[in-house]
Amino acid sequence: MHYLAYGSNLHPLRLQRRIGDCRLLGTVELARWDLRFHKRGQDGSGKCNLLFTGAPGDKACCALYRIAPEMKKTLDFFEGLGKGYETGTFHLEFKGQPIEAFTYLAMDGYVNASLRPFDWYLELVLLGMEYCAFQSDYTERFAGIETIADHDLVRVKEHRKLLQQIKEFNKNSSPNLLPDGL
Prior knowledge:
alpha+beta, 3-stranded antiparallel beta sheet, two-stranded antiparallel ribbon, 5 helices, globular
């Protein structure tokens, strides 16, 4: 299966920790879509969502992964399928081949533009963008987003540890893209 990641699952280490084996194939841009931090998470903070704007200048950058079909159920759990996110399907062209990829999109009633992400969540997204080598003008749009503090100290400690591991990973590796084919 092909999975289109755009938020906290951009980085392969994060995704691998959640579902096991996954393969980053490359990156894609979705024209007329935008990345927003306006989806209400189960913890009350702002999570990422793709929003179709229709505006010619808008784009959302995503990582395209190949995952085993049996891993989708695990990913559905982590993404809160039916509890804020629903599955969306994209028909894309990747390396000259048509493919179908799924992602998660905010359900009606779970979008609120006043929401802010936790500081660690935004950092996780930015580290994924860095690893995927998204253009700096795209990444810089999100670097200054206002964040909120997470008062769940156990969750903060867990994510700070993950962030440190991702930083080390980024320092010592380059994107693990399949050379050819899907």
